């Protein structure tokens, strides 16, 4: 089947999917928050307030919202370096995330992690990892722990389309399938690994097919449709909690912006037309349209929401700006456990 | 005191710690039904069952990462590498995940995990199966590196490693597994980071660890007959290094030879020599000398292999040199 | 489908396979040579004449013979540490191999490699590798070189069933499929990785199915039937030479002996009955029976063959025994190119 | 002489060697259509086409091994690691295949391959993207390790590395790519294994490589004003180490400071310090001191990162100490 780079994907379930009307208000708010938060982060980066690598989530909002809304607070989440969206969806505050991007002591990783390494152990948000594919075995490890303890917790692990070609993916998915671990492996398939289209990196473009090699279902999901993402996640979560084993989700989405802040909005590897085509089915617009149809959204509500979120993001930036840097002594802490033990 | 093999001492440590803490489990290739490629885990599957003694596919990167993940959420995995040579395919998880998680998360996450298995050369296993990587692991902040040389140290240090809240690379030796020694009957642990004086001496210090401890002691015996009184210090832990023990001994003897199994360039001995010349410069009566493996991949032929390896004769020769007795 | 550990595999093609009658004499001789060579190697190991790890090929003879007989001299071969059989099939002399096992200067790797590292560059036999899966990217690399140079050479890469679960397998097969490399990936599926049955190591027991994840055909082959192995290899070679890309062959075979000389003939991980069941369809017997039927073999010919081979193997042992060890100076040679360059 | 950036000097070396030898090809992530993550390979796809400038999936272990295989049969691959941090997932192929093939095969096979990419830290890339692994690679017999500090050295050494018949780990620096310097117009190569005196001095030797060369030269300028005349030696090649150049300088100056980017334990500086105390013991007027990264994973915060890194101030302070001027 076509990969998302060729044309916007047609939903496999969008139509058939149950409408999660009661959650739509929260979802719209969260997706819009992600969008505005990332836009501001981009600005702050250009102003030199954020350093290093910064990978924005703009365009992929429905993936984080549709998946994480299906989880319980005690489930585990792990992601790659493009994880601001999942962190927000998990309920980490814009303040704690923006402060981390600014490298401040009040950041979720106390200024030591940065954009690629957001952590909040209290929310089972376990990073933020920079080595492509490295977090996939970690995600399987959380699932292993749940099985070991006999809980019905689920572990969800996010990675990109390009990460499906690295060895860690193969080893982790094989063991997850072999041991029927309660894991959900989410390919955030935005069509490219940096400048390399899926079809130039993978021998098959339908990455979901790889699930079969690991004895797990592989499902293709329309990542522009938050309802479809949620419906597919509900089924994966059900399987995992029921002890039926892991699921591989190939969620077709798209990033509107460059790979990172150091990459052009659309390089030579894709056309502006392609980007615009995807913007036609913007995940926020798709949900907003449904809500308008259902009478749940009008221009006033929308304006109010934008204002509310603008204020929230501005507050996060101000908080980050005003927060202190870590104390110089922090350079040497957290390497090992304090000698007394923790 | 019972006399045990190094293998059985490790086995006791594993059993006792698994009995003590239900969060401790052992995972690796052939550790369960096969009782371990080198039988270190003999009997553990029967006692603890398949969730706590887990056979894996051949996928070191994957199960090392599964171990790190399990440790991040509070379990205490012991990940067996059939040999440390195979840890190279898993090293990204050890260095980029285990060693950095606490720091990257601003102290929110601990990774209480042990990566253990035999390191270095055995007999005629060839170039890919005869490598000592302790200097690599000791280079990495966030890791601890432990290398016991005797059954008693092996048991006491493995128990400490399992209880440690940080990732520990615990390197054993195929050539050590059958070594016998006295092991206390009562419960005990040996702290990580503390070297041990295996022989008290006054004229020269021989610093060694793991497989070089026995040849160092043999060399000391030979030298005694020649009127050279050598002190033998077993590092036991490579990182954190027991700098005080090293410097105190050299301050006393004013001469030092370092014996290690691995290759010379940026080996453990290089760090120890650097430490000594830096911190005990005025105590030194002669340069610190090193004894190490020939700087080549390990050959298969047994004579070539023997020539490549550290032995008591080479250590004694180096000691004579630092004592200007050659 | 069942894995070979459950019961002897029924051939997928044996019946339909063309009979390579003209080659049967050579094949029988070669398979018997492998069998007797390995038996002698086992003895020499027990006598301490061979050291280190020594992995015998006994029971798997039809795999090496059926595959390598389909190749040209300029094709590339790479294998793991259980490679004595492939080395013999490639025409390396029993003398040069036995001498290597003995660690002698006359060995194919001049005594520096040993049982796990047999090499003969002049025959494009490129090792003999000890890290599970490590040779799979190398095999893809030879295929890459053939494509780079525009030759129609083929690269064949052998590895075990357990190696199909390691990252190197995934990465190499993906690139081979993506770039349509002239490679043949042979899973010598003897049912076990050391003491671990395929079904305890892989989430799916039909490893051939993994080919689909890399856009290449995956074929299951009866490894007890040399004709079937050859027929399947002919097709894989044809595909590769024609530029149609790689093939994954899952050749079901069985090792009668322990994993290595330090492992029991049949440990607790399998039963003597299982071993005996496979011996019922011994690959040498299967071919011998066909030849007898076809009037190509009788007791006299068989006895003569046994005598001939016994002499050849005895000669190899004597040669190895009488050969010199490498000169001590050899310890320091071959680390880098001689300073003049080679 | 033209003034070029380090990036363009590398680009010229790649282009010239690919023009010179049809067996040379470049493979790695984003090297072709994207012109390289750091644009080192700009324009090469257009000139040499997709068989010789090859974009890969993210599969370092796999394409490193494909490169080794291609080299075993006579091609001369240049394998780009987007950064050397990612070489950890490929390290088994570099250490167990590339470095050992010649030896294991009894000299039958050469592996003429270059693994290249930026090493060490850039700015605020965090713990997993800011690591210097030169001491790891230099530990391995069968490898050569090259780390140029200037555009001219980068071009001349990369050309030598590509022509070399053994595997070369060629470590660049993201923070060096924009550095400008004079590069000869005519064809030239710089031999591997030869250090370079970047500043002649008489009272103290500063040994450095790669990113520590510029701060070392700055420190030397500062010290000159204080009446301390420092010699600055750029190792350029880490393995094989130019021991003669180091010892000759220390024999002259009797004092030495070693500055390297990486972590202290068993770093390159440990080996150099060991060498000096062993071979120049009687020449030393004070212990050899080392300047290196703080022994912690690299923090993201820019002030912490700056405090962790080597700079001219820290080098100058160490020099004053060995000169007893502090
Ligand atoms: C092992 C490794 N190799 C290379 C890189 C450099 N790198 C960072 S992100 C990236 C592309 C990943 O693409 P994908 O997995 O599709 O995720 P996306 O960025 O599209 O979300 C690369 C090559 C890395 N971080 N780790
Ligand atoms: C990366 C790695 N891990 C572990 C080992 C130890 N080991 C050697 S052979 C082997 C089993 C391999 O089984 P399989 O791939 O099925 O090949 P077979 O021995 O059956 O021919 C193991 C675990 C190794 N050599 N390399
Ligand atoms: Mg992507
Ligand atoms: Mg097998």
State Rg of chain B: 19 Å
Distance between the termini of chain B: 42 Å
Question: Ions, cofactors, ligands: which are bound?
Answer: thiamine diphosphate, magnesium ion
- Given as residue ranges, the uncertain stretches of chain A (5+ residues, pLDDT < 50) are 1-15
- Mean of pLDDT of chain B: 98
Class based on secondary structure composition and strand pairing of chain B: alpha/beta
Please state roughly what percent of the residues of chain A sit in beta strands, choosing from under 5%, 5-15%, 15-25%, 25-35%, 35-45% or over 45%. Answer: 5-15%
Question: Helix segment count of chain B?
Answer: 12
Number of helices of chain A: 11
Taking strands numbered 1, 2, ... along the chain, how are they ordered across the largest sheet of chain A? 1-2-3-7-6
Shape of chain B: globular
Major β-sheet of chain B, in short? 7 strands, mixed
Instruction: Please state how the strands of the largest beta sheet of chain B are arranged side by side.
Output: 3-2-4-5-7-6-12
- Spatial shape of chain A: globular
Overall number of strands of chain A: 7
Kindly, what is the distance between the CA atoms of the first and last residues of chain A, rounded to a whole number of angstroms?
52 Å
Largest sheet of chain A: 5 strands, parallel
β-strand amount of chain B: 15-25%
Task: Describe this protein with a few key phrases.
heterotetramer; A: 342 residues; 5-stranded parallel sheet; 7 strands; globular; disordered N terminus; B: 326 residues; alpha/beta; 7-stranded mixed sheet; 36% helix; binds thiamine diphosphate; binds magnesium ion
